[in-house]
């Protein structure tokens, strides 16, 4: 059975968001399975985040081109980060809505 396009994109956006959030939290992602030998490299975590971020931006861009509302899946601050497109420390620190501090 075919899914309606908005439902399909909503699922894809949620999957991409979850993968990106897993990279913020330094949790296992699908990307780890592709490059298991890289897990020990410090730069791998940044690279993994950039890949997940780009995936999220790509799906959002496609949703926009199809006039599918994607913003309801995110907090206002997250929408702003996505619209700015730049992945930096502020995005990682404030993605969940409050500045994270190391315990």
What brief labels describe this structure?
single chain; mainly alpha; globular; about 100 residues
What features would you describe in this structure?
With 103 residues, the chain is mainly α. The protein has one domain (5-94). It has helices at 5-24, 30-34, 42-65, 76-84, 89-94. Helix 1 (5-24) packs antiparallel against helix 3 (42-65). The longest helix is centred in the middle third of the chain and has 24 residues, at 42-65. The radius of gyration is 14 Å and the shape is globular. It starts with a helix and ends in a 9-residue tail after the last helix.
Number of domains: 1
Oligomer: single chain
| Element pattern in H and E | HHHHH
The radius of gyration is 14 Å
Give the overall shape, derived from the CA principal axes.
globular
Number of strands: 0
How many helices? The count is 5
Q: Helix fraction?
A: 55-70%
The chain-level mean pLDDT equals 89
Largest sheet: none
Separation, N- and C-terminal Cα atoms: 48 Å
Spans of at least 5 consecutive residues with low confidence? none
Strand content: under 5%
Label the structural class.
mainly alpha
Summarize the structure.
The protein is an all-alpha fold and 103 residues long.
Strand and helix map with partners:
Blueprint: H1 5-24, H2 30-34, H3 42-65, H4 76-84, H5 89-94
Helix pairs in contact: 1-3
